[in-house]
Design goal:
By secondary structure, this protein is an alpha+beta fold. The chain has two domains: 175 residues, NADH Oxidase, CATH 3.40.109; 107 residues, no CATH class. It is 30% helix and 16% strand. It contains eleven helices and 13 strands. The strands form five sheets. It has a four-stranded antiparallel β-sheet with strand order 1-2-6-3, with helices on both faces. Strands 11-13-12 form a three-stranded antiparallel β-sheet, with helices on one face. A two-stranded antiparallel ribbon has the order 4-5. Strand 4 and strand 5 form a beta hairpin. Helix 1 packs antiparallel against helix 4. It is globular, with a radius of gyration of 20 Å. It binds iron/sulfur cluster. Iron/sulfur cluster binds next to helix 6. The site of iron/sulfur cluster has 12 residues, from helix 6.
Length: 328
């Protein structure tokens, strides 16, 4: 490893990063041009991927114990964990700048362009993908749910990336035991059916000589729960929200439908709707094969609460959202 790569990794670790890896720019040969490293820094030669792990018991027990709360994980994720990631990314950036290399820190996942634009053909697209960077830097591989699984922590970490001109040494691609055995738990536990595993819809991508295949994720459905908290069983119920709105079973979700469901849920759930947080069940329930028996499987709170749903209508019109109430 060259001395600068060593210095970067040491600084990342000294700044509380549990995982750090480097991807060479050639691993992005097949990436979409508006979201690849050179779109952010034309001189880019490498991407540094870093991650901080969640406290394991906090993750496994969130919403599942007698406390029935996910306040702790919500706040650590959005404050302390996020701030530590930004802090480490900024320090690594400054180190590389001081060494004379242009460097741009990326953001933690959380902002998207919702519609296709110019060469961006997908919906809900970030300007840079930390999960793809993590795979390109050898930190792990994709699961069926299209997220990066690591051998050390499975799904229990959060990523950030730094794009740099510096000629850092790349880490090898992950080549250990498979981290996804297609157990389908992520697919079965998604309350909005966002994960499409039809063989003809699977996405294939090539990174660093490896070909990965994962499910097509409907990000409007995922965002329906995870971003705007319309599904109380994915977390908002833990704050006291009893009102839910399911996305339509068939047809497209439009901006208008998305927005009006969000307003309707807020109106029905009252101020409680401001105090909620959703935690994707795909992420929560996925324990990769090498970590089974080591990581505790969270209790399926989602399923238990789903059984209490009382719908406002019969659900005959499958193209419309459905309102319901749960008993908490
Ligand atoms: S839950 Fe199972 S199928 Fe889904 S990503 Fe994890 S290991 Fe793969």
């Amino acid at each position: 490893m060259n001395a600068l790569t060593d210095k970067v990794k040491k600084l990342a670790k000294d700044n509380r990063m549990d995982l750090v890896g480097v991807a060479s720019i050639d691993r992005y040969a097949h990436a979409p041009e508006m979201v690849y490293p050179k779109a952010h820094l034309p001189e880019a030669n490498a991407v540094i991927a870093m991650a901080i792990r969640y406290p394991d018991a906090m993750f496994a027990n969130a919403g599942a114990g007698d406390a029935e709360s996910i306040f702790s994980i919500e706040n650590y994720q959005n404050t302390v964990i996020g701030k530590n990631l930004y802090n480490a990314a900024l320090r690594v950036t400054r180190l590389l700048e001081d060494e004379g290399y242009k460097t741009v820190p990326m953001m933690v996942s959380g902002r998207w362009r919702l519609h296709p634009y110019k060469s961006i053909r997908t919906e809900w697209c970030a300007d840079f993908s930390n999960r793809h960077a993590a795979v390109a830097a050898g930190l792990g591989e994709f699961g069926l749910h299209a997220l990066c699984i690591t051998p050390q922590y499975g799904m229990r970490q959060r990523f950030i990336s730094v794009v740099t001109e510096a000629p850092l040494d790349a880490d090898p691609m992950y080549s250990g035991p498979s981290l996804c055995d297609k157990c389908m738990i992520c697919f079965k536990s998604c309350p909005v059916k966002a994960i499409d595993v039809k063989p003809e819809h699977l996405e294939k991508i090539q990174i660093g000589g490896r070909v990965f295949e994962y499910a097509k994720v409907d990000h409007w459905r995922c965002g329906w729960s995870e971003q705007v908290n319309n599904i109380p069983e994915e977390g908002p119920a833990m704050g006291g929200q009893e009102i839910g709105i399911l996305p339509p079973e068939q047809g497209e979700i439009t901006d208008e439908m998305f927005l009006s469901a969000f307003y309707e849920k807020n109106k029905l759930a009252g101020f409680q709707a401001q105090m909620t947080h959703a935690m994707g069940n795909c992420m929560r329930m996925c324990i990769p094969p090498p970590l089974r028996g080591k990581q505790k499987m969270p209790a399926p709170y989602c399923k238990k609460l789903m059984a209490t749903r009382i719908f406002e209508d019969t659900g005959e019109d499958k193209t419309k959202p459905r309102k319901y109430k749960i008993s908490i």
